[in-house]
Write a structure and sequence with these properties.
heterodimer, A: 286 residues, MetI-like fold, 11 helices, 0% strand, B: 330 residues, mainly alpha
């Protein structure tokens, strides 16, 4: 259904995309500006890479980035495991007791204002510490647990919708041939939904890498993540080295997304071809 | 048809997990669980379920409890609700003072109303910007559609904080936009939108636009094109077709998109903190300051409960729209 789009719709689209990308482009452009005043373009001495050089020497930023990477990777792995289990339960187990509550619990973290989630998590950790003595103080552990809790909701949605569009007949065939459910999952389901699992992992990683509000509530002294550091710098005003940092991050993300996108499209094509081959073989057999 | 299968990452992972499944201790544990009447399905469901109950549902009851406590100089800085007098008599001290305080101090009610207003206006603005975008994407050719969708998603993958920060430069007095407008002679002196409500509106629309466009796109894409053709054949003008067919049939997408913007925007902290003025308070910022600056955990908890009560309606609305859309999928 490819209808002619009206002039109005095209203009609105152009405006929308310009709105989405101009701020990002402006950060990229001004990261090469020589002037310390971020918004005044120093035409004589620009472009310059001095802010990037300064960034490389900034151990505070590098340490925070390292910590954020570590938390994001742990979070993504945990969130993918829990989210896949939850997605499997919601998509495949039909109506079970407590399904409605589980659905609610997996969608609520996505819309809940972060200040509420952050405060609630912190109070839980404080209460747990007085009652069971764990977690001791707050830091990487509490940040990771909090991140897993809200990012597993996103993974659940990704996995669940992938499973819902997936033809169940392959799984049923394996089941009919006497494979146990666990084996069916690992041999049939998991390889097919693997691209969804990977995009869930990336999504969870980004959510954690990006989070400021929840982290601020549940972090302790000595565990400053990159967003926390950026926020404290930004509050003091605009700063050209932040533009450089932003450019590096945008570039990394863009490269990752493009590669992941190409890879996933290839996987999808391959999967469709395999399915067709399987169907053709099936018909030959009959 | 024997094609040489190249093992991909997924197959390697699945092989490893299968090996783990066959490992003797794992088998033994499985057998033990089965003896207790625990099925595989129950085990699969229980793990994420317990996690969410412990780390997501229980905390809200703790917030509720602490909102009835009173502030104390201690760590944690609040008085316990339950105390034992002489080890025998249980005393429960419910302190309604926090809620009374929120009721009496105009700061909180005005912050709450202001948040609703800011979130509402931004949601409408996001809908006005997002709907034509989603419509245009859904009506594009297949290849273009995927590229455009990716372009909508891409900013979402880059740091939220940095994208909000970018607007500080764009809205300030020396901004390139201002210089351009001055050069064109459209304005006589530079205007700064920074620290005004407009900056917050722009920030919210900008940050949450992908959340508006994606559910709208899904709804518009599902729309049956023959209905529109029929309307056109019967002489219905495009504007009327839009308002009497397209808009009602994409209602679920509109509700889902609006709620995905409105709910988090109401409690938003980063955008008003970086772009908004000191006099335009939003409730998320009030909660943050109550907690971090005043260290008044009980009042912060009471604010959280109040905000939650306010958002229960919209959250239910969102979940119903989600379920309706999910039902249509199957």
């Amino acid at each position: 259904m490819n209808q002619r789009r009206s002039f109005f719709v095209l203009t609105a689209m152009a405006f929308g995309f310009a709105f989405l990308y101009i701020p990002i482009l402006s950060m990229v452009v001004y990261s090469f500006n020589n002037s310390k005043l971020v918004t005044v373009w120093d035409a004589a001495n620009s472009p310059t890479i001095k802010w990037y050089v300064a960034l490389l020497g900034d151990t505070q930023v590098l340490d925070a980035a390292k910590l954020s990477l570590k938390i994001a990777a742990m979070n993504a792995t945990g969130a993918v495991i829990l989210g896949t289990l939850a997605g499997l339960a919601l998509a495949r187990f039909g109506r079970f007791k407590g399904r409605t509550l589980l659905t609610g619990l997996t969608t609520a973290p996505m819309v809940m204002p972060e200040v509420i989630t952050g405060l609630a998590m912190l109070l839980l950790f404080v209460a747990m510490q007085t009652v069971v003595g764990w977690p001791e103080g707050r830091g990487v552990t509490t940040i990771t647990i909090a991140h897993i809790t809200f990012s597993m909701a996103y993974v659940t949605v990704v996995i669940q919708s992938r499973l819902l569009t997936l033809d169940e007949s392959l799984e049923e065939a394996a089941m009919d041939l006497g494979a146990r459910p666990a084996k069916v999952f690992f041999v049939i389901t998991l390889p097919i939904i693997f691209p969804a699992i990977l995009s869930g992992w990336l999504l969870a990683f980004t959510l954690s890498w990006d989070d400021l509000v929840i982290t601020s509530f549940v972090s302790g002294p000595g565990s400053t993540t990159l967003p926390q550091l950026i926020f404290s710098k930004v509050r003091l005003g605009v700063n050209p080295s932040i533009n450089a940092l932003a450019t590096v991050m945008v570039l990394l993300v863009a490269v990752c997304i493009v590669f992941a996108g190409i890879w996933m499209q290839r996987q999808e094509k391959k999967r469709q071809r395999d399915m067709q081959l399987a169907l053709a073989a099936n018909q030959e057999g009959e | 048809m024997s094609r040489v299968a190249q093992p991909n990452l997924g197959q390697v992972l699945s092989g490893l997990l299968q090996a783990l499944l066959g490992w003797a201790p794992v088998r033994a544990a499985q057998g033990r669980l089965k003896d207790w009447g625990v099925t595989g399905r129950m085990a699969v469901t229980a793990v994420p379920y317990l996690w969410l109950l412990v780390f997501f549902l229980v905390p809200f009851f703790i917030v509720l409890k602490i909102s009835f406590s009173s502030v104390e100089i201690a760590m944690p800085p609040f008085a316990p609700l339950i105390q034992w007098a002489n080890d025998k008599v249980m005393l429960i001290r419910l302190n309604l003072g926090n809620y009374q305080f929120l009721w009496e101090d105009a700061l909180y009610s005005s912050a709450l109303l202001n948040s609703l207003k800011m979130a509402g206006v931004s949601t409408i603005m996001a809908l006005l910007v997002g709907y034509p975008m989603a419509y245009g994407i859904a009506r594009s050719s297949r290849e273009w559609r995927n590229i455009l969708l990716m372009l909508v998603m891409l900013p979402f993958w880059t740091s939220f904080l940095l994208r909000v920060y970018a607007w500080i430069g764009l809205l300030g007095i020396n901004s390139p936009i201002n210089q351009m407008l001055l050069a064109l002679g459209l304005i006589n002196e530079p205007v700064s939108l920074l620290q005004t409500d407009w900056a917050v509106y722009i920030g919210i629309v900008y940050s949450y636009l992908p959340f508006m466009v994606l559910p709208l796109y899904t709804a518009i894409e599902k729309l049956d094109g023959t209905l529109l053709e029929a309307a056109a054949d019967l002489g219905c003008r495009p504007t009327r077709t839009f308002f009497s067919i397209t808009l009602p049939l994409t209602k679920e997408g509109i509700v889902a998109g609006c709620m995905l913007v409105f709910i988090p925007a109401t409690g938003e902290f980063v955008i008003p903190a970086l772009l908004g003025g000191p006099d335009s308070l939003m409730i998320g910022r009030v909660l943050w300051e109550e907690f971090f600056n005043n260290r008044d955990w009980p009042v912060a908890s009471a604010v959280a409960i109040l905000l939650l009560l306010l958002l229960v309606g919209p959250i239910m609305l969102y979940q119903r729209a989600q379920q309706a859309a999910g039902g249509a999928h199957r």
